[in-house]
Amino acid sequence: MSESASSTVPTLGAVAVACCSPLVSEPLSADEALRIAPVLKALAEPVRLRLLSLVASHADGEACVCDLQDAFELSQPTISHHLKVLHQVGLLDRSKRGVWVYYRVREDALADLGALLAVPAPVAAR
Amino acid sequence: MSESASSTVPTLGAVAVACCSPLVSEPLSADEALRIAPVLKALAEPVRLRLLSLVASHADGEACVCDLQDAFELSQPTISHHLKVLHQVGLLDRSKRGVWVYYRVREDALADLGALLAVPAPVAAR
DNA sequence: CTCAGACATAGGCACTCGTCAATGTTGACA
DNA sequence: TGTCAACATTGACGAGTGCCTATGTCTGAG
User: Fold this and answer.
1) pLDDT, tens only, A45-78
2) Kind and range of the H or E element at A41?
3) Pairing of strands A100-105, B92-97
4) DSSP letter assigned to residue B27
5) Which ranges of chain B does DSSP label H, i.e. alpha helix?
6) What protein residues sit with their CB closer than 7 Å to strand C?
7) Chain B positions in Cβ-Cβ contact with residue A23 (cut-off 8 Å)
8) What is the pLDDT of residues B83-95, one digit of tens each?
9) Under 8 Å CB-to-CB from A93, ≥6 apart: which residues?
10) What is the distance between the terminal CA atoms of chain B, rounded to a whole angstrom?
11) What are phi and psi of A96, to 5 degrees?
């Protein structure tokens, strides 16, 4: 089963990030940077950050749009737009059940991003 | 109004990120999102991603602007601008020695970002 | 002191992005 | 069939961003 009917489209997906060694290990190629930047750009917005966090910490790890809208003083199309952005870069999964649409965080994609930024071994200071 | 020789200037710094539990653990507050987003936004640009990666993987972990410019087909002011953005959010340290300015990755700030995106325990697939 | 090199700042332009109101689409139900 | 509710899409507008050229500010050499 894996995916719902509508989200079989890869968009650009987690694959975009799961490609490179950590940022600090070796110079990123121009191509790699072009693939990774959109994913970070999707995250680099206060509303989308909160949306992703809200979805992730929701019961069962998924939330429908109606649950998310109440947390913001923004119009419904705006929330819908932000969710679309997060979905397009592969950070959010989308599944429609009846009238409701449920979003779920793709933890693998998020973990890939985290690994990219993580500092390998000798961090020393802190 | 140039900053002091070393980067004692707070700008907004690594502190902005080292504040919150992982994104997926509990809902991010609006304030936290507003602090974190600019740091991610600084990274969410292909040239800046490569710049940071270049600096990090350079000998001794630091690089002067002259070394970085040659890696891009961009004007010197553009590179300078991108470095400034990375420095302002606390991802890059700046130190002037003679005529040259050396940048160094703040690994603690980067690691904090990585920790924010990391998924705590049950990652499952990969 | 004068000059040249390394880097930063200023200002302008084209483009992208976040937001909204209006409208479209789809599924549940009477 | 008709109607309501949940989301998505469209189109427009102001604000922000990346790039450039031109100019400014240091610092070391001569």
Assistant:
1) 999 999 999 999 998 899 999 999 999 999 999 9
2) helix A30-43
3) unpaired
4) P
5) 30-43, 46-56, 65-69, 76-88, 107-117
6) A 41, 45, 47, 73-78, 81-82, 85, 96, 98-99; B 1-2, 64-66, 69, 76-77, 79-81, 83-84, 94, 99-101
7) 49, 52-53, 56, 110
8) 999 999 999 999 9
9) A3, A4, A7, A87, A103, A104, A105, A106
10) 49
11) -100, 125
Q: By the 8 A CB rule, do A11 and A90 touch?
A: yes
Say how far apart CA B86 and CA B88 lie, in whole Å: 6
As to burial, measured by CB atoms within 10 angstroms (0-12 exposed, 13-18 middle, 19+ buried), residue B104 is middle
Residue with tokens 């190629």: A29
Instruction: Give all domains of chain A, ordered by start, each with its CATH number.
Output: 11-18+28-117 (1.10.10.10)
Nearest to B113 by CA among A102, A115, A26: A115
